[in-house]
From TrEMBL:
One GO CC term, this protein: post-mRNA release spliceosomal complex
InterPro entries per UniProt: Cwf19-like, Cwf19-like_C_dom-1, Cwf19-like_C_dom-2, HIT-like_sf
Family: Belongs to the CWF19 family.
A single GO molecular function term of this UniProt record: RNA lariat debranching enzyme activator activity
Residue numbers spanned by region Disordered: 289-310
Ranges for domain Cwf19-like C-terminal: 308-424
Protein name: CWF19-like protein 1
Tree of life domain: Eukaryota
Gene assigned in the entry: LOC114244027
Domain Cwf19-like protein C-terminal: 444-524
Any one biological process term the GO annotation gives: mRNA splicing, via spliceosome
Length: 532
């Protein structure tokens, strides 16, 4: 089984040339790596070196992921979550779980703890509710949770510094009990943090289980020094990761001669939620009062701590697809559900080419709430039955690249072409130098890509799903190019929707025809009658 080759570095502090030059030399010596994780502060006081990467005169050699800031002076440099800071450098946000294409699970919670710090720093602090959210994301869909492959945090978990064999001095404000709670629950195989000066690799510790006779995986805790530091301390780390979900239990549980017991309090395993209130003792130590009343003031949705000026929000009244917008072309609407609606596509490939769209403003499937996804799935299942009456299959595809409102394209295709569709997609991807992957069965796009990250995703009549990470210059009409090709719909003149737009009268006729034929399948009619 292929392993994921990963590089991890400490605080960059604006030393971009030192970082990427070193990465280039590692790649030349050891071959290409899949990704680079910057676990510390990415920006510095002087970020002028980044200009060359913005202009394209220098290139980032490995896809690089950057995490949330801990310095408020740097907050304005960050872009929207999932977007590129410069080509091939993606901002992941403050918290989340990222499943790579090889199923490596990377959990992260960066920034400072507001509760333990005693004050809020916009865009740079997290709450106990953030810890719970990361834990829940790791547990979701896992009937037997083994752990995650990587955990990335800015602060060190309290207790990790207590290593009898290695002396390490960590400032008190760099330690967090909240992260101890998170680490003991999600059991990372690797836990990476930035160090202010020296490299530190703790002896592996064996994770604890609620059941004394059950053996858990071990964790390697590694703190990386700042990039290009004068002390010549190690600041970059390379590893090959086999996904924890695909490892044999004998390998996962194999002991090492230097491993230690878990440094965290096992009582935390009994706490379904981390401490509600932090109380300080006279010597500056803190502990959690688990009996304190709930304090939800710090709760916030992911990304809601970003200043409004940095969000590239489009107001509903300005969006072409928000149903409440005056700009929406209402004559294209076929039916309206509770959270989503069905509309005729502009410049349709066939008279039955439609879109599933959320009523409210959601950028992509990966950013939509679960109830919206549930109704999208209901529309898809209904359309499959509808198209089947015409002896047609259906391709659903979404391009989350240079779009602001989610659009699921639904294109009926002849049954005779179904076996060729995957091959045509792969051929077109090869011509356009697009790295396309076939996803594992029953997987979801939200499991393989970051919320907001650009991608192309399609569901084929065969049940197969294809995914591509969209990079700069990704062909905007890629899905239509494939489906309009001779082996499938044979209407290449319609590859670009702008070249085959209908008049308003023609569109109204298409909508009326679709609505009439779709009526026996239209579950939104039942929803309307139920609500009366």
């Amino acid at each position: 089984m292929d392993k994921q080759k990963t590089l991890i570095c400490g605080d960059v502090n604006g030393n971009f040339n030192a970082l990427f030059t070193r990465v280039e030399s590692i790649v030349k010596k050891s071959g290409q790596f899949d990704l680079l994780l910057c676990v510390g502060t990415f920006f510095g006081d002087d970020n002028s070196q980044l200009d060359a990467y913005k202009m394209g005169t220098r290139k980032v050699p490995v896809t690089t992921y950057v995490f949330g800031p801990s310095n408020p002076d740097h907050a304005h440099h960050y872009c929207e979550e999932g977007s590129e800071i410069v080509p091939n450098v993606i901002y992941m946000g403050r918290r989340g779980l990222f499943n790579t294409s090889t199923d490596v699970k990377i959990a992260y919670l960066t920034g400072l703890s507001r509760r333990e710090l005693g004050k809020d720093i916009p865009m740079c602090t997290y709450e106990p509710s953030d810890c719970s959210a990361v834990r829940d994301a790791c547990f979701r869909g896992q009937s037997e949770f083994r752990g995650v492959d990587v955990l990335i945090t800015t602060l060190w978990p309290s207790g990790i510094q207590q290593d009898e064999c290695q002396k390490v001095d960590v400032e008190q404000d760099r330690l967090s009990d909240l992260l101890s709670w998170l680490a003991i629950h999600i059991k990372p195989r690797y836990h990476f943090v930035p160090s202010k000066d020296k490299f530190f690799e703790r002896q592996p510790y064996r994770n604890q289980s609620m059941h004394q006779d059950y053996r858990e995986c071990a964790t390697r805790f590694i703190a990386l020094a700042p990039v290009g530091n004068n002390l010549k301390e190690k600041w970059i780390y390379a590893c090959s990761l086999q996904p924890i979900s695909k490892m044999r239990m004998t390998d996962l549980l194999q002991a090492t001669t230097d491993e230690t017991p878990c440094p965290y309090d096992p009582e935390m395993l009994k706490q379904h939620q981390p401490g509600k209130v932090v109380k300080f003792t006279g010597n500056g130590q803190f502990f959690f009062d688990m009996n304190a009343p709930d304090d939800d003031q710090g709760k916030r949705k992911r990304g809601s701590d970003k200043p409004e000026s940095k969000k590239r929000n489009i107001e509903p009244e300005e969006c072409w697809f928000c149903l409440s917008s005056p700009k929406v072309e209402s004559h294209l609407v076929i039916c309206v559900g509770t959270l989503c609606y069905l509309a005729l596509a502009k410049g349709p490939l066939t008279p039955y080419h439609v879109l599933i769209l959320p009523i409210q403003h959601h950028q992509s499937t990966t950013r939509a709430p679960d109830d919206v996804i549930k109704e999208i799935t209901k529309f898809k299942d209904t359309l499959k039955k509808f198209y089947a009456t015409m002896n047609m299959g259906v391709v659903f595809f979404e391009r989350n690249y240079r779009t602001s409102h989610m659009q699921i394209q639904c294109v009926p295709v002849p049954r005779a072409s179904e076996l060729q569709i995957l091959e045509v997609f792969q051929d077109e991807a090869g011509i356009a130098s697009i790295q396309m992957e076939v996803l594992p069965p029953y997987s979801e796009i939200r499991q393989v890509t970051l919320p907001g990250a650009p991608y192309f995703h399609a569901e084929l009549p065969s049940g197969e799903q294809i995914y591509a990470k969209t990079k700069q210059h990704f062909p905007l009409q890629f899905g239509r190019d494939v489906l309009s090709s001779p082996p499938i719909l044979n209407c290449e003149d319609k590859a670009d929707w702008r070249q085959c737009q209908l008049t308003k009268e023609e569109e109204e006729k298409h909508v009326a025809n679709f609505r009439a034929k779709f009526k026996p399948f239209d579950f939104t009619i039942e929803d309307d009658s139920d609500s009366d």
